[in-house]
Amino acid sequence: MAEHLASIFGTEKDRVNCPFYFKIGACRHGDRCSRLHNRPTISPTLLLSNMYQRPDMITPGVDAQGQPIDPHKIQEHFEDFYEDIFEELSKFGEIESLNICDNLADHMIGNVYVQFKEEDQAAAALQALQGRFYSGRPIIADFSPVTDFREATCRQYEENSCNRGGYCNFMHVKVIGRELRRKLFGRHRRYRASRSRSRSASPRHRRERDYRSRSHDRDRDDYRDRNGRKPERHDRDGGSRRKHGSSKRSRSPPPAREGSEERRARIEQWNREREEKA
What we know:
By secondary structure, the chain is α+β, with helices and mostly antiparallel strands. It has helices at 2-8, 19-24, 71-89, 119-129, 149-152, 155-158, 178-185, 203-222, 260-277, and strands at 45-48, 95-100, 112-116, 133-134, 137-138, 141-143, 233-234, 240-241.
């Protein structure tokens, strides 16, 4: 029974725990939900609810006065907010990911999810954000159960094929430009896919790894020292070998095995020598 409950925890088959709160850290029913919202007491991820106020909040693409807004202006406004939040939150530790929802439903609009590398960094940020305001509005921050954003994001939205629009129940993560991402996260940023599960290397990755290994050997062959000579390559046992014009190392032949009669004679000789010394 326990194994069955564990296998369906956080899924649609779970009639006790809310699957949407488990996956995206928010539920459209809120406190009126018939299922439990298991709020974590510690997590590397913080949820800043309804924090981002998009300029076309009332009607997409139109400002409060009913005038159309240039999409480039909307993106510029978003990236300014993203950079501002990133720089402020990075004071508390290394940020693994910062995701901002582009959804329109009340329980998800403007939600900001920041995932730190360590849980204590998230705890320090949460404590510092208590009682603070941003753009005249109080910051509502809580620990979030979301640690794997692959399960929380809408795949159809990433493929521009979501027919639910901004009222989808999964995250429509707003994307920043490449230059800003490189500036904030670094050129050689290595994402851990939100604590992604470890997987064995696929055949394609194994082939690439073997190719890189062979390429490294070729690069080592092409390397020359300052005098133009190729360095000696060393075997694992510490011996050196040259690529051309070197004689093979001679191996001494293994000693011949003694027969049983020879071993008995040798043992008798050892016993006689021991008795004479005694």
